[in-house]
Amino acid sequence: MLLIRFFALLLAVTSSGAFAQQVALAGVAGSKALIVIDGTAPRFMSPGQTQQGVKLLSTLGESAVVEIAGQRQTLHVGEAPVSLGRTGDAGGSQRIVLTADGQGHFMPPGQINGKAVQFMVDTGATFVILSESDAKRIDLDYLRGRKVGVSTANGQATGYQIQLASVRVGDALVREVPAIVLPQSMPFVLLGNSFLTRFQMQRNNDQLTLDRRY
């Protein structure tokens, strides 16, 4: 059975002057894997085959093992791409590259304080914006935050301004990020300028590149 789940999100990482390749698993068909490398069109690869320096070693179920620059990594269908062939550092990645979905939105999965969330990039939002339901799910003590009035698409609302210990997108980790928790239900967390201004942003067609500023 052919298992294919294409991503809208593609993450690329460059740090410490070393070269990194993004590698994602879009699907598995028998022993073949549908691999996405550096945002190019997905390609089927067979075990032992090499494309753009990425070698497919094996597949099993909805996972695949690849190797690049001597590093082995297990990929899983539906998970965010991984970066291989780079030297890690405590500062996290210096670049993120996002690819828009079919509606033109940038929807990276990520983490707040180590808990998984679904982001949507919103350059018009001053802060990272969460719903109360998301805040409760990831155990944020938002009721201790400062009450603030916020203008939303549905009118005025009262939210709680808090400080997030960390926000992660891919390998990029930003600490002490201001956020607002709103009572309205939201299908995702708005990734606003309290995170985005830490990066220099450049859009090229359906790709958004964020280079770390500080």
Structural class by SSE content? mainly beta
Number of strands: 19
Q: Low-confidence spans: pLDDT under 50, at least 5 residues?
A: 1-19, 86-91
SS element count, helices: 2
Q: How does the major sheet shape up?
A: 7 strands, mixed
Quote the average pLDDT.
81
Strand content: over 45%
Shape: elongated
Our Rg estimate from Cα atoms comes to 19 Å
Task: Explain what the structure shows.
With 214 residues, this protein is mainly β. 5% of the residues lie in helices and 52% in strands. It is built from 2 helices and 19 strands. Strands 11, 12, 13, 14, 15, 16 and 17 form a 7-stranded mixed beta sheet that branches. Strands 1, 2, 3, 4 and 9 form a 5-stranded antiparallel beta sheet that branches. A 4-stranded antiparallel beta sheet has the order 5-6-7-8, with no helix packed on it. The longest helix has 6 residues, at 132-137. 36% of the residues are buried. Residues 1-19 and 86-91 have low confidence and may be disordered.
